[in-house]
Design goal:
The complex is a heterodimer. Helix content of chain A is 25%, strand content 28%. By secondary structure, chain A is an alpha/beta fold. Chain A has a 7-stranded parallel β-sheet with strand order 5-9-4-1-2-3-10, with helices on both faces. In chain A, helix 5 (210-220) packs parallel to helix 8. By secondary structure, chain B is an alpha/beta fold. In chain B, 27% of the residues lie in helices and 30% in strands. Chain B is built from 6 helices and 13 strands. In chain B, the strands form 2 sheets. In chain B, strands 9-8-7-10-6-1-4-5-11 form a 9-stranded mixed β-sheet, with helices on both faces. In chain B, strands 2-3 form a two-stranded antiparallel sheet. Chain B is globular. Classes of the chains: A alpha/beta, B alpha/beta. At the A-B interface, helix 3, helix 4, strand 5, strand 7 and strand 8 of A face helix 3, helix 4, strand 7, strand 8 and strand 9 of B.
Chain lengths: 310, 250
């Protein structure tokens, strides 16, 4: 048996979430093949071939896959999927966008955001914002699976020597087209793969005050996140959001500043190894999940923290 | 054009859910139920499109038990014109939901379908994309801004790196994200008016769709609880504990 992993890439490089996704496929057992679908993505395919544990790379390099529009990419995955035990993709906005489209075209019920692969077509997945864990068994010939990245340690990006097989494209589509993107570039680590995350909530009061968190983040090599309340209030952009509907993070250290701890936020960070909460309300629910709680005004505590870190 | 909005009845987002002792699922008896919050945003968007003269009829569809009528009534009170309830007791999974919605789309011919991006019970995030695939339509997922043009729509999508803007041909299926709008509260007169709006009663069999779940739930359990932590007195103690006890910073 063999499993197919859909790589997330930018043409030149494989995105880190692909490595967590391969780890999930590895847990299912059997050979692992990786599909690199894009336009001008030979370099990404070469990188995929070096990933430890991958035996074959399927390269679909054709103009219609530029910008990874779901209407174009889904038929390409359908074409490749036949005969695999399962097809895995990361449960980020890339995988969530395209995989249900693949599943419907194949008349298969998808498994979303799987957090454990138990074998025998059985998987665990969180439901109700992670307040319950369901064990589900599939009876589909090919399982279509998106993977909760934080539940799987990434495989090594180097050490493999897979063959690369070229597959032809599936043709242009005229249903949708790409206009543009606004992506904030930052020198800090990416939120979902950072070892340390410091997040701010409504208590931050405004966007400028996030500068205090950034100073601490720079001393710790941390990423900066936010609660939904802070994003809704316009303090920071949407890509900062940690929670049920934002990003799921599980760093070694998560520092929640001025975050009350709504269940929707806890859903995105409660698998962190160590949680610190700084909040002036000692009744805030965040303290129930925090390993270390500091009841203090964040406008005193955060500058003091920065100073203490030296 | 017509706008179709699927709405799901779920455990209210403020309720702390309880897993059943026999591990068969989550307790939903005697629990406050509401419209899925993302679906409220979709209804609001449809109503705003109608107010802007971009839509002439809004149809709210729900698939679920008899009580899902209440969810449809909520949509009608917000401004939807009529409802369709596909009555089904027990679990129904996204693929079957998408097939039922496709049959309804085929019958009603909407110019756009506005879905919530995910339901807060099963957190699947599949139905909109599946419906779009079954129809052979364009899709715009996780939409935080939507402009309807001539035969096409421009959508801003919330993606991991930030925001992405795409154009989709109409008809299209959109799944809406949190920041598209802020849903209105229905006024009392509108709640009264909604009681007189029609709801069509259907069953999956009327559409020739088999609602049997394709994935079997073996058990549902609570996640392992986190150990209760400690309160520290000040920042110095916090940093000392993080360095020497938790060893997560150097």
């Amino acid at each position: 048996m063999s499993n197919l992993v859909i790589a997330e890439h930018d043409g030149a490089e494989i995105k880190p979430h692909t490595l967590n996704t391969i780890a999930a496929a590895k847990a299912a057992g059997g050979d692992i093949h990786v599909a690199v679908i894009g336009s001008g993505c030979q370099a990404a395919a070469d990188a995929a071939a070096k990933i430890a544990g991958v035996s074959k790379v399927l390269l679909v390099d054709s103009a219609e896959y530029e910008n990874q529009m779901a209407e174009a990419v889904a038929p390409a995955i359908v074409k490749l999927a036949d005969g695999y035990s399962a097809v895995f993709a990361p449960a980020n906005t890339f995988g969530k966008n395209v995989m249900p489209r693949v599943a419907a075209l194949m008349d298969i019920q998808q498994l979303s955001e799987v957090s454990a692969v138990l074998g025998d077509k059985t998987f665990e997945r969180p439901i109700y914002a992670g307040n319950a864990i369901a064990t589900v068994k599939s009876a589909e010939a090919t399982d279509i699976v998106t993977v909760r990245m934080t539940s799987f340690e990434p495989v090594e990006a180097e050490g493999g020597a897979a063959s690369i097989e070229t597959v032809s494209g599936t043709g242009a589509q005229d249903l949708s087209s790409f206009v543009g993107q606004s992506v904030v570039s930052s020198d800090r680590p990416e939120l979902t793969s950072a070892k340390i995350v410091i997040s701010g909530g409504r208590g931050m009061q405004n966007g400028e005050n996030f500068g205090m968190l950034e100073k601490v983040a720079d001393k710790l090599g941390a990423a900066v996140g936010a609660s939904r309340a802070a994003v809704d209030a316009g303090f920071v952009p949407n890509d900062y959001q940690v929670g049920q509907t934002g990003k799921v993070v599980a760093p070694d250290l998560y520092i929640a500043v001025g975050i009350s701890g709504a269940i929707q936020h806890l859903a995105g960070m409660k698998d962190s190894k160590v949680i610190v909460a700084i909040n002036k309300d000692d009744e805030a629910p965040i303290f129930q999940v925090a390993d270390y709680g500091l009841v203090a005004d964040l406008f005193d505590a955060v500058p003091a923290l920065e100073k203490e870190l030296g | 054009m017509k706008v179709l909005v699927p709405v799901k009845r779920v455990v209210d987002y403020n309720v702390k859910i309880r897993v059943k002792a026999d591990q068969t699922g989550v307790e939903t008896a005697n629990v406050k139920m509401s419209m899925n919050p993302f679906d409220e945003i979709a209804v609001e968007q449809a109503v705003r499109m109608k107010e802007a003269g971009q839509a002439d009829e809004i149809i709210a569809v729900s698939i679920g038990p008899q009580q899902s009528q209440e969810t449809i009534r909520t949509a009608l009170a917000m401004g939807a014109d009529r409802g369709i309830l596909v009555q089904h007791d027990g679990e129904i999974q996204p693929l079957a939901v998408a097939k039922l919605l496709k049959a309804i789309v085929d019958a009603e011919g909407p110019g756009i379908v506005l879905c919530g991006k995910q339901a807060i019970d099963d957190d699947a995030n599949q139905t909109a994309q599946m419906l779009s695939a079954l129809l052979g339509w364009s899709q715009a997922t996780f939409v935080s801004k939507l402009e309807i043009g001539d035969g096409e729509a421009t959508a801003t999508r919330e993606v991991d790196g930030g925001l992405e803007t795409i154009k989709v041909k109409l008809p299209a299926v959109c799944s809406v994200d949190l920041r598209l709008n802020e849903p209105r509260y229905a006024s009392l007169p509108n709640i009264m008016k909604a009681k007189k709006k029609p709801i069509d009663m259907k069953t999956p069999a009327d559409f020739g769709v088999d609602p049997t779940p394709r994935l079997t739930t073996l058990k549902v359990v609570e996640p392992p609880p986190r150990q209760a932590g400690v309160k520290v007195a000040d920042v110095a103690e916090l940093v000392s504990k993080l360095r020497n006890e938790a060893k997560v910073i150097s």
